[in-house]
Amino acid sequence: MHLFKVWDQTRTKKGLILIKEPGNVYVDLILKASQKLEINGATVVLESDGTPVEEEEILIAVKHETLILLEPGQVWLSSQSQCEISESSSGPNNHSFMSLTSTETIASTKSNECISGATEFLNNDSSSLDSTIQASNCNLEFSWTNFVIPWEKIPQDMLQCCAQGKRDKYAITEIVHIVVNEMKQISESIPSKAFKIVSFKMVDKYPATFRDYDDDGVVLGDGTASLKTKLQERYHYLKRPHKRPVSTSPETPLHLAKIKKNATAGCAQWAPPYQKAGAAAKNKLNTFLDDASDEFFHLLEETFAEQRAFINNVDPPSITNIKDQWPVLFKVEAIKWHFNKVTNGNISNLTTNLQLKAEKIVNFGLQHKIIISKDVRRDSAEIIALEVFARYFQENIYGAFYLKFQVYNVFVSD
């Protein structure tokens, strides 16, 4: 849970915004702050000096600072210049700053002086304003926070299903098609974060319809990740050429792309934005003795992006490499924390869930000839279920999973 102090550009509208996790803190802040301040927020900057805040991790790190939410086209102005502009807008006719700079005859000498002073300030500070404008332009994708889901274009029977919390695959597919078509009307080039923002809006409107369940009705997630994938897949499908080119050279070989897709399944935080924590934090964490203290978990959080970048390398590190570079990852508490962080789940529920699903997983393995009947009689259903997973994803359960936990004397209960 995070509390932010947010003002508008004029510093006249102010509010405290409470954001709860899990979710995208950056997107949620822009949406809720826009609603509270009654503006169309697009970018966030520091009130003190106008430094753009463009990433979720940075936003959380500066949450104790006062933030300004800028609308599209707005730039940060210091409180001094804002005061000068406010003074220039006062007078018997209550003209605004823009109206004072128009071709109208201005009678007030004082107002002219205020405008001149504000203009001089803007000229003197042009370099900082240019950098702020440039940063804002780089972050224009967040203007998608103003995108309105075209619910009025969706057939009434489908909207009724959504209102009743029903999950109809045909209806969801049709809604995805309509939404993507509407997004393409705004721009043919849609950034990835736009789909994330739109998926949050759709789930917020009809959470029960877009929530992810398994076959037994167990909730797997709020649905934003899977809905974002559906939106992106539809968008990329519409961008495909009608004919396959004579020769193609994909950036990632097909077999590697499949391996990555399997490895990232269910991992909400597989590859967070890279941020180097520094050698001091890494060394302290790897030599930390008290693995149950708040500082230990703080160091894990601080170095998490660097851990994932190391593990996700194009040439994956061996167990020996991991032990040399990140020995802390073989501590029980670190393993549990890392699993929970990557999956947004809870490893404590793993044993129970595996016991509940083991029989179904084993039957799946038999039907698809991943295992044979004599394998089932050899061991417990839970162990056989793990073997089904390993063979399906072409992993060696005893050469990888077992080795990691036994060779380095790491044991996890259950």
UniProtKB/TrEMBL annotation:
Gene Ontology annotations of biological process type: apoptotic process
Q: Do you know which SUPFAM superfamilies this protein is assigned to?
A: CAD & PB1 domains
Recorded hits in Gene3D superfamilies, A to Z, give:
3.10.20.10
Q: Does the keyword Lipid metabolism feature in the UniProt annotation?
A: no
State the InterPro entries in the record.
Answer: CIDE-N_dom
Q: Which UniProt keywords apply?
A: Apoptosis
Q: Domain of life here?
A: Eukaryota
Domain (CIDE-N): residue spans on this chain: 4-76
Is the keyword Isomerase in the record? Answer: no
Q: Which Pfam families match?
A: CIDE-N (PF02017)
Q: Which PANTHER family match?
A: IP13529P (PTHR31025:SF22), SI:CH211-196P9.1-RELATED (PTHR31025)
* Name the UniProt record assigns to this protein: CIDE-N domain-containing protein
